[in-house]
Amino acid sequence: MAKEFKNLAAPITIKGITFRNRIMAAPVGFVWPDVTGAPDPHTILNHEDRARGGAAIVTLGETAISRHGRSMRRTDGDILVPDEEKGWYPTQNWLKLTGAIQRHGAQPNIQLFHCGDATDPIFIDGKNPIGPMGYTREDGVVVEAMDEDMMEMVANDFAEAAWYAQFSNFPMVMLHGAHGWLLAQFFSKLTNQRKDKYGGSLENRARFPLMVCRKIRERCGKNFIIEYRMSGDEHLDGGSTMEEAVEFGKMLEEYVDILHVSSGSYYSSRQYTFPTIFTPHGCNIHLAEAFKKGGVKIPVASVGALWDPELCDRYIEEEKCDFVAMSRAIISDPMLPRKVFSGLKKEVRPCTRCINCLGNKYKARNECDVNPIMGNEIYTIRTPDVRQSRKVLVVGGGPGGMQAAITAAERGHDVILCEKTDSLGGKLKFTDHDCHKEALCRYKNWLIDQVKKKRIDVRLNTEVTPELLEYERPYAIIAAVGSSKVTPPIPGIDRAHVLYAYDSYFNQDKIGQKVVMIGGGMMGVEVGLHFADCGREVTIVEMTDEIAKDANPIHKAALDEMLELKTNVLIKTRVIEILDEGVKVLKGNGSEEVLACDTVIYAAGVKPNRETVESLRASDVYGMFFSVGDSEWGSPFTAKCIRDAVHGGYFAAMDII
């Protein structure tokens, strides 16, 4: 056991149940229900990995409490309680889930929730959703105000769902009272403006959430553990504040055993709920600390951009919280707790904070950019063992090439990694210079460190020629040769004060005070924000009607906020010509304007290095050939490109048997 993390590693006992350390694997959206609503093998294997990795608590994400209570939304689907009408009693799969977690020493937990007024009618037989207030949503859906009979029904549904969880060997449940769902809708002054005893004062707005907690306690008994997640600050004008949240926390103590403090709301502040690259480590720790200092006596958990074990250990030592809940850090490496407590902190695969895992949930892609297994556990089960060690030549030292080399070496192959430049990293080298990409830089350095630790023959400044191929005669070639910039046909693009976006990082001394960025995709806006935070005046010009449309919705919300604060954005605007004194543009209304600037930067996408790929493929010395990453797909230079490269490199190496 690593002595430096003694506070983080310390067990804690609540109601007779001992939690082996203070790390919670927080609820995430990696859930694949079967037709009954119970977890399928994907879900079971996914959560078992987190338990095997050493977390004290492994929590299944948002689980609707009933099929009839009008509680669901589009990205859910797992329903906890049986459906007697259809003859569904999904106990077996729930027992398999809890058993898979418990056999590795972790405690299984499940997050119960009701969407309230955010419910999608398509999942409740076309009925109207219910909430504290009656109104018509922006999408035209009518929301019905809950009367006391509805409240009684929903509170009983929560209690029955909790009882069924208890019956399925969950020793605890988490009530989702945060992020703008039903319980939070009653608590928040913004969404609860009722005039009866369930609205107005804090005592009245707390009445229904407390009813739910009381019903669960009565149904499940005094020794069942109830965890309550709440937003310490909704970050919404007119929403709940930290001061009120602390008072509400004290009210909950009568029924609840753990307070889990998050922040933000799905209404319009998701970037606080899911912290982005613009948010510091432990962004909600001050909220958890407020509960501790405010007199809350039960254990308090903090969630939000927590990954650094030194800081997490210090938070517990300083009594700012009692648990730390990690979401993306454990998605990127489920073994994080075990590695940290075994003195192997440097072996932990860093999360890049791209938030594609959660942001792309809305596109039905539950995966991690840097952990190819996460979300794909069931597909890797049938991968055959290596029957014979092979010579593998990896061409390209970017993220895809490094991951391919690491995986091939781990599987026992004889690996040569050739990189034509003098260092590894590929396009990720820019992260050494971007003020917002510290997490991605850590990941790049982790890959380089892993390559050094494996039995890999790394050859820098090495172009793979026909002669080299003929000499080495590899069994498999993995081409990870990347892509090249696309230069738009704009008059003046070759002027001295014009730079390609990627190149601008390595020529920052040439960047003037006034910058025009041509291209408002992810690459353009992130380069623009970097230079804005370096003190430049930045104008971003985008010819379409949307900025950063290739970003996932959560990251885009944060980008939009940052762009509004720090840059000038012009959409529906086309660059006609680049002049010595600025950029001539044609606006959507047909008018022309010259934007004065000292430096012009452009980001117009990339094209795959197919010629290099085909020259390698043309050799007749190999038995297997793979092309991965940008060189295969030609994806835009975005965080998604990292996924293409890393996943492509991993699965290519796995196919060499």
How does this model look, in words?
It is a single chain. The chain is α/β, with parallel strands linked by helices and 657 residues long. The chain has three domains: 3-351, TIM Barrel; 388-485 and 607-654, NAD(P)-binding Rossmann-like Domain (Rossmann fold); 498-604, FAD/NAD(P)-binding domain, CATH 3.50.50. Helix content is 32%, strand content 18%. It is built from 23 helices and 28 strands. Strands 3-4-5-9-10-11-12-13 form an eight-stranded parallel barrel, surrounded by six helices. The protein has a five-stranded parallel beta sheet with strand order 16-15-14-17-28, sandwiched between helices. α3 (148-167) packs parallel to α6 and α15 packs parallel to α23 (639-654). The longest helix is centred in the N-terminal third of the chain and has 20 residues, at 148-167. The chain is globular and about 75 Å long. The two termini are 36 Å apart. The model is unreliable at 74-78 and 634-640 (pLDDT under 50).
Report a brief summary of the structure.
By secondary structure, this protein is α/β, with parallel strands linked by helices. The chain folds into three domains: 3-351, TIM Barrel (Alpha-Beta Barrel); 388-485 and 607-654, Rossmann fold; 498-604, 3-Layer(bba) Sandwich (FAD/NAD(P)-binding domain).
